[in-house]
From TrEMBL:
Residues 234-263 are annotated as: Disordered. One of its GO terms (molecular function) is channel activity. This is Major intrinsic protein. Belongs to the MIP/aquaporin (TC 1.A.8) family.
Amino acid sequence: MAGLNCVGAASNVSLVRKLGAEFVGTFIMVFGAAAAPIVNEKHDGSAGGLVGNAACAGLAVMVVIFSTGHISGAHLNPAVTIAFAAVRHFPWAQVLPYIVVQVSASLSASFVLKAAFHPYMSGGVTVPTVNDHQAFALEFVVTFILMFIVTAVATDSRAVGELAGIAVGATVILNSLVAGTATGGSMNPVRSLGPAVAAGNFKGLWIYLVAPPVGALAGAATYSVVKLSDRPQNQVHDDSSRVDAPSASPYQSSSNIQDHNII
């Protein structure tokens, strides 16, 4: 398809359309991920518990990637946007507009949930049940894992990009099962920010604003280091003057920056 790679946003889509799709996608993600624990709280834990919460979060991410990834790239997460800009897979000029839209969508979804489920909004807030150091480390690690997978399926032509939604959604479920009882398994600043504002509960919020971006930067950088070279192996050996150079990539120069299907 002209202007569209297997995992990226169409290059001919205007920024306004991308931002519109990003708003809708982030709204759906936050609504789904926060609604599950709210409903669970309302029904005294009988509405699926940890498994149900993890499944809702992962499914929300998956369906949004499949439905809006070809328009906006389906970032849904400021940590992802910043990390991909840092490793030159997304233009810095679009980072701030994307983050503004993501925050706006998170706040909108959270206040819709508050109107629909009051007084049970507190169930959708991610609050650490461990100490701050443990919570920070856990959010860092699960976001690192998420971003490593996202970078693989979204930027490497050897990965099966058509299945990015399934791979990323499954990773969200996995991480939510691991971190859900300790930190809520946020992995995303706007997943935590909107519900915290709507509920007026800011306990430990700084962890969710700082740890995911740092973990995402580490995850994206790590995959960029370990990914296979795009050049044939014999060319790598023959070209001794470039043995220590980074793996060849269409993103080595700023003129080749592209958008990618990520959360």
